[in-house]
């Protein structure tokens, strides 16, 4: 297990370095001059050259990359081209909001999908199982932002039970924090839960057809105890893969949901930075999102070995 973890950690480190190179040089080749954008179209060439020197973008690309990545590893993402404020503290604050949203959305998806997917598989020849499969298929077709708009219309506008948007830090008012998190988490979790339900159903169906489960049944175990004791752990391996992919999808999907519910997360910061062409801020945000996806894949690889002991020996 330790060797597996060290090997995956080395792959993660290499992947992070490669990702940083790709992100930096992709941003470097985009058209437009950040100094010209920051100063406006009426700026003189001398002032533009001076501003480029202040930003450090008049140096060779390799020098710029080494300075930037060295600062990133030290927690310094540089200063915004637009506001001239440090990017790192803003990223940290916005990342906390996004993590709360993604974590809550993933919890909602798991709480929906694991029991419903299992029941849909066990009842796959019954009308109730068919109805659950149909509902999950319908949920797959609904985008997260549309689910958010519908939830706001029902629970915020008509019923008035929950706020339609905004953010309150948990250390200021726990009640307002939770009430403001419910609708965004549901809009993410319901859609991803529908997707996950399909995979859980398929995985449990495959397990139900296995010989070892028939043997457990023939020895006197009832269907549900046999499935819980012998089947769910084997069904969990492909589900863990999908969970990792969905967690990465939630990180990206949170960009739109944050905009719908006016949440000050990474997604809102990314859209604002793109609109103002603050390329250094965009560069930092994209790197954080990419590293987040890589970390999710790393944790999923480790979770495989926890769920399936056969992978530890291999």
UniProtKB/TrEMBL annotation:
<feature type="transmembrane region" description="Helical">
    <location>
        <begin position="281"/>
        <end position="307"/>
    </location>
</feature>
<keyword id="KW-0472">Membrane</keyword>
<keyword id="KW-1003">Cell membrane</keyword>
<feature type="transmembrane region" description="Helical">
    <location>
        <begin position="99"/>
        <end position="123"/>
    </location>
</feature>
<dbReference type="InterPro" id="IPR035906">
    <property type="entry name" value="MetI-like_sf"/>
</dbReference>
<comment type="similarity">
    <text>Belongs to the binding-protein-dependent transport system permease family.</text>
</comment>
<dbReference type="Pfam" id="PF00528">
    <property type="entry name" value="BPD_transp_1"/>
</dbReference>
<dbReference type="GO" id="GO:0005886">
    <property type="term" value="C:plasma membrane"/>
</dbReference>
<dbReference type="Pfam" id="PF19300">
    <property type="entry name" value="BPD_transp_1_N"/>
</dbReference>
<feature type="transmembrane region" description="Helical">
    <location>
        <begin position="135"/>
        <end position="156"/>
    </location>
</feature>
<keyword id="KW-0812">Transmembrane</keyword>
<keyword id="KW-0813">Transport</keyword>
<dbReference type="InterPro" id="IPR000515">
    <property type="entry name" value="MetI-like"/>
</dbReference>
<feature type="transmembrane region" description="Helical">
    <location>
        <begin position="9"/>
        <end position="30"/>
    </location>
</feature>
<dbReference type="GO" id="GO:0071916">
    <property type="term" value="F:dipeptide transmembrane transporter activity"/>
</dbReference>
<feature type="transmembrane region" description="Helical">
    <location>
        <begin position="235"/>
        <end position="261"/>
    </location>
</feature>
<feature type="domain" description="ABC transmembrane type-1">
    <location>
        <begin position="95"/>
        <end position="300"/>
    </location>
</feature>
<keyword id="KW-1133">Transmembrane helix</keyword>
<protein>
    <submittedName>
        <fullName>ABC transporter permease</fullName>
    </submittedName>
</protein>
<dbReference type="InterPro" id="IPR045621">
    <property type="entry name" value="BPD_transp_1_N"/>
</dbReference>
<feature type="transmembrane region" description="Helical">
    <location>
        <begin position="176"/>
        <end position="200"/>
    </location>
</feature>
């Amino acid at each position: 297990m330790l060797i597996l973890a060290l090997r995956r950690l080395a792959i993660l480190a290499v992947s992070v370095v490669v990702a940083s190179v790709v992100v930096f040089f992709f941003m470097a080749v985009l058209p437009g001059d950040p100094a010209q954008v920051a100063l406006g179209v009426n700026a003189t060439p001398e002032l533009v050259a001076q501003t480029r020197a202040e930003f450090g973008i008049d140096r060779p690309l390799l020098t710029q990359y080494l300075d930037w990545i060295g600062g990133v590893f030290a927690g310094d993402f540089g200063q915004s081209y637009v506001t001239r404020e440090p990017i790192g503290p803003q990223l940290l604050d916005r990342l906390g909001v996004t993590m709360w949203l993604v974590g809550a959305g993933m919890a909602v998806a798991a709480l929906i999908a694991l029991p419903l997917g299992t029941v849909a598989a066990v009842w796959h020849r019954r009308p109730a199982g068919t109805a659950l499969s149909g509902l999950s298929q319908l949920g797959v077709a609904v985008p997260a932002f549309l689910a958010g708009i519908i939830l706001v219309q029902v629970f915020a506008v008509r019923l008035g039970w929950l706020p339609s948007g905004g953010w309150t830090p948990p250390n200021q008012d726990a009640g307002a924090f939770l009430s403001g998190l419910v609708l965004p988490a549901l809009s993410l979790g319901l859609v991803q839960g529908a997707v996950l339900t399909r995979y859980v159903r398929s995985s449990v169906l495959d397990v139900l057809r296995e010989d070892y489960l028939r043997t457990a049944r023939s020895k006197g175990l009832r269907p549900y105890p046999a499935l819980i004791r012998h089947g769910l752990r084997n069904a969990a391996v492909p589900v863990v893969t999908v969970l990792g992919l969905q967690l990465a999808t939630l990180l990206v999907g949170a960009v739109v949901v944050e905009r719908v519910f006016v949440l000050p997360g990474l997604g809102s910061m990314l859209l604002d930075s793109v609109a103002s062409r603050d390329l250094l801020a965009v560069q930092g945000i994209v790197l954080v999102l990419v590293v987040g996806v890589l970390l999710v894949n790393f944790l999923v690889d480790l979770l495989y070995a926890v769920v399936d002991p056969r992978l530890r020996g291999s």
